[in-house]
Write a structure and sequence with these properties.
410 residues
Length: 410
Amino acid sequence: MEEWISKIANKAKELANINLCDHCLGRMFGKVGTGMTNDIRGMKIRVTLEEIFVSTANKPDEPCILCKGIFNELNRYADAIVETISAVESKNFLVGSRVDPEIIKKEKDIQEKFQLKQCESIKSEINREVGKLVLSAINRPVEFKSPQVVACVDTRFASVTLDIAPIFIHGYYNKLSREIPQTIWPCRICHGKGCGRCHGTGKMYQTSVQEEIGNIALRMFNGENHFFHGMGREDIDALCLGKGRPFVLEISNPRIREIDLNDLEIQANTSKVAQFHCLQFVDKDTVRKVKMATPTKVYKLRVRANSKVNKEAIDEAISSLSNVCVSQRTPKRVEHRRADLVRSKMIHWIEVGKVEDCTFDIALEAESGTYVKEFISGDGGRTKPNFSDALGVQCTVEALDVVAINEEIK
């Protein structure tokens, strides 16, 4: 008699006589003995018990009281998974399962009643055994840590659902329109349902930077939805120039995983309102890095003063504000959707460009999250110090461009 069986003989005798199949009997001692499947383990236990106790411990004729014959359906489950998973591109896969809750409860009751400490769950056995069958039928390896697709079979109906890992694409965009947002804005009236105000689209704006590339990518990947993760965002009426703003485009449930990103870039760049470049596949962690980054930004602004100004006065104002920390209370224009806080932000440098009577150009570098328009206007005293106070003339921003994002992704 094998040593591992002798250690469990008494408990195994009780279990063998409650109409458990070999799979379920073996699984109750799944961590005892190695190098065999649970059904082989159960068969060995049953044969040995007959030798020890000279009693019948035969495999029951009627269905197992625990699994109710699930293990007779493994080939059916595997065939359903192979058929479903073959319609999806992936470099690897993993099998999961849903089991009747009554079976899960009965298994737990048996384990507690007989104080079994070295058993394996029925789901684990199903996943492993079905996985072996699927592996032999498709040319893809099993991946436990980060599978691209998980095929979950419901053992009650032999139906299969797929959990497909999303695709992530990093790149840079230039925003060339002062009339579109970075991401989709649901209509404030209908909240995305469609109404007269949005002409049934459910959106405040007819397009966005996200949609200009996301809709094309969605078709190419045959995905379900797209999500846009930018390294910050500019105002709707601002342009984003220079190298552009870093972003990650996420495609959920892609049924195609391998596409030519150059082709995606070419198609997306037929847009007249946004341009995209340096696209590359990345992992999910890049989303966190992009969202958590706090780069300084360089802006170019066209400013209008309430009266004529000269370059000397502007230079004097600039000299008092370069490399200065400003306190900004949440601006009036966003207080309906942002917490009312006071934030400290650094203005690193300011330079003046063309000056014409009441208008002039300036460039400045500011800390991430600075409300640049309010730094110029003062926002009724909510930003201090501010450019208008330093100049002694009330000013507003007529046009704002982001010309550089000094990214630092760690």
